[in-house]
Amino acid sequence: MSQSNARVGIVMGSRSDLGIMKKAAETLKSLEIPCEIRISSAHRTPDWCAEYAETAEERGLEVIIAGAGAAAALPGCLAAKTWVPILGVPIDATPMGGMDALLCMAQMPGGVPVGTLAVGNAGAKNAALLAARMIALKDESVRARLKTFIEKQTQKVMDAGVEVSLEELGLEVFVANPSIPILID
Ligand code: RP5
């Protein structure tokens, strides 16, 4: 997916990252923020990767979300080639469970920042929400949609109720915490 009016670029190191990174695209879509998606690897296509970052500003990108697994150099390589903010999403792609990618992104040397999110789905979703918050600083319509998203999210939790049944809770937990409200059938 690529749009000339894209405000956010979503880049990932491999097609195998798409299952996670599509959460970022879905979240941006729900907030009506146009994005473009590119598969480009810091290790396998280094020149193409650098070119993407170097042309980001002139193409109108305001934030870049970069997802990668393993020795995840992608967000750092992009950050080295553009001032446009880079948000990194570590992907669980190896037997190390994403810890490898998380440390690669979080442990950037001083001077080349990468805003690193959580490993996996939550990270992809939050990268999009953080990009939206950045854009919302100067875009009232995005700000309004973001506020509506937050309100709906809060209401959804409240609608689900705070009470649990004694069966769900377990008698031992209730005895230890008698102030917990429970549903009595
Ligand atoms: C990274 O290596 C990619 O971002 C991916 O998470 C991981 C594995 O890539 P594939 O071997 O599945 O293409 O560069």
**Strand order of the biggest β-sheet:** 2-1-3-4-5
Distance between the termini: 51 Å
Low-confidence stretches: none
Structural class comes to: alpha/beta
Q: What summary fits the major beta sheet?
A: 5 strands, parallel
Number of helices: 8
Give the strand content. 15-25%
Average pLDDT number: 93
Q: Quick one: overall form?
A: globular
Give Rg in angstroms. 20 Å
The tally of beta strands, per DSSP, is 7
Instruction: Give the ligands present.
Output: 5-O-phosphono-beta-D-ribofuranose
Please trace the helix and strand order, writing H or E for each element: EHEHEHEHEHHEHHE
List keywords for this structure.
binds 5-O-phosphono-beta-D-ribofuranose, 7 strands, 44% helix, alpha/beta, 185 residues
